[in-house]
Design a protein that fits this description.
- This protein is α+β, with helices and mostly antiparallel strands.
- It is 35% helix and 25% strand.
- It is built from two helices and three strands; from the N terminus they run αβββα.
- It has helices at 6-17, 68-88; strands spanning 38-46, 49-56, 61-66.
- A three-stranded antiparallel beta sheet has the order 1-2-3.
- A hairpin with a 2-residue loop joins strand 1 (38-46) and strand 2.
- The chain starts with 5 loop residues before the first helix and ends in a 5-residue tail after the last helix.
- 0% of the residues are buried.
Length: 93
């Protein structure tokens, strides 16, 4: 029996089917958006909320507040992404 969250998998499949989901920033498209590289992160628990602080390679920081359900979905998305990179040898440079 798989422990994969079916809802998370459906959302990921939906997202990946959308135009621009597969690295369009590297293709030189006119509407391309530069995606900053995350260098480090900190997770804080504040009451019922979970705060994720991300520091980017250029020194900027960004914080995201999540309820526990969103944090669990994020964990599932990251797990699925890591498994697919390992399974298909698609590690990003």
């Amino acid at each position: 029996m798989s422990s994969e969250d079916v809802t998370a998998r459906k959302w990921l499949d939906y997202f990946m089917s959308q135009p621009g989901s597969e690295g369009s920033e590297a293709g030189g498209d006119d509407g391309a958006v530069e995606i900053p590289e995350a260098q480090s992160f900190v997770v804080e628990v504040r009451g019922d909320d979970i705060l994720l602080r991300v520091r980017f390679a250029d020194g900027r920081e960004r914080a995201f507040k999540m309820v526990p359900d969103v944090a669990l979905f994020l964990r599932e998305y990251l797990t699925v992404a890591l498994k697919s990179t390992e399974a298909y040898g698609q590690s990003e440079p």
